[in-house]
Write a structure and sequence with these properties.
This protein is an all-alpha fold and about 100 residues long.
Length: about 100
């Protein structure tokens, strides 16, 4: 998992604007973390909070590259979440709103 975030960091260093970045590419490490068997509830919550902020700040717009695929992947990740604590379920609801 850390390698995926390190690769994302390198990719984002080379992007001038977040809106020009491939949406699916920068969401994938967070989506993978939500679905991971190895991630504990705390890591899952951090990933869900990050995804929620991406949505709230408008980084998932129709004009962004690969946005349709990213939205589908987000829906699949929410359904495929492996941690079901009360606080994780609350965050799942917030992200899916």
């Amino acid at each position: 998992m850390p390698r995926k975030f390190k690769a994302l960091h390198h990719y984002m260093d080379n992007c001038e604007h977040l809106m020009d970045a491939d949406t699916l590419r920068y969401l994938t490490p967070f989506l993978d973390l939500v679905q991971s068997q190895e991630a504990n509830a705390s890591l899952t919550k951090v990933a869900l909070r990050s995804l929620n902020k991406f949505l709230l700040y408008g980084f998932l717009s129709q004009s962004a590259p690969n946005s349709a695929k990213a939205i589908n992947a987000l829906a699949e990740a929410l359904v495929g979440c492996r941690r079901y604590t009360e606080s994780v379920l609350l965050l799942l609801l917030q992200v899916s709103e």
